[in-house]
Amino acid sequence: MKQFFTLLAFAVTCSAGLTAQVIDSGLVVHYQFEDNLTDEVSDATAEAVGNLSYDEGIIGRGVRYSDDDSYFLTPDTTLTPGTPDVGGTPVSFALFVKHDAAELGAQRQNYLQQLNGCDATGRTTLYLQGPDSPTNADSIISFVGNATSKSGIGLPTADEWTHLALTIDPATGIFTFYRDGVETSQDTLTGNKAVEAACGSYIVGHHKSLTNDELTFDGVMDDLRLYNRVITAEEVAEIAALSNIVSTRPALVRGGMKLFPNPVGIGEAINLNVDHTVFTPGESVQVRVFDAVGRAVLTQAFNTTPARITLNQPLKAGVYTVFLSNGARSTSLPVLVK
To answer: Where is the signal peptide (predicted)?
Structure first.
């Protein structure tokens, strides 16, 4: 669970025209890797296999893969990328990766795969093809069906963070690759690219059969997200913009906003009156709501041209904390939902 000031460091610089983007909607798996493997959605903690440790991430901490047999499994999900005739569901994947220079390009390295088993064969969702590959060398690949699809993303730069995202829409058969918030290519799932069934868990950082140890990811990973919907290009850009957070903690200010009503009823909108002497009219701000144990349950971006922000919320009864930040200054207030 993130500590108070680490939570504040999540401030993102969003475009002025972006309003009320809920990047947590449809999120079914989310690892922040704050010195643990706890899924923020299910609150389940995965068992580390091999030499997994924690290092400086792009947002707080990240998970480091340090040998050839390291991985962990996500909770079971119903996410099956592919065409509707094989039970395909809408899915989106997003994560930050930073490769170690000594290992970069030495061989194929896996980021995220479906698990073998259940009388079915898993599939590689995202992996890096090394320079010695006879096909699609030096690129990010998705093997989501019975054929590989090249992303148009070249070999990442060693020791630098890269954000990768992949969305798959079974209604159209289109899946789209993004690097650092920008679309790089699209492909269509037809014919022999239909996806085979697989177990619900995803393997993070290893081969789908839990063998082939030399294909383990080498480096640090952060902010892994799995969605049960196709996130938009704007949402991908917003998630990737987490890499633009300031390196210093935003200054915590008194005042800055007022909440009403408070307490608020279940499903009732929360209104935030923004103090324009603290947050300049027209600038982009982010509102994040955390539950009593520190889990982010709602994220929205707004423009502060109007002094009042209306936060529509699906929260259950309980005590929450509302954070408002522009990246340089942050303020927070408790709110009771009943």
So the answer is: 1-20
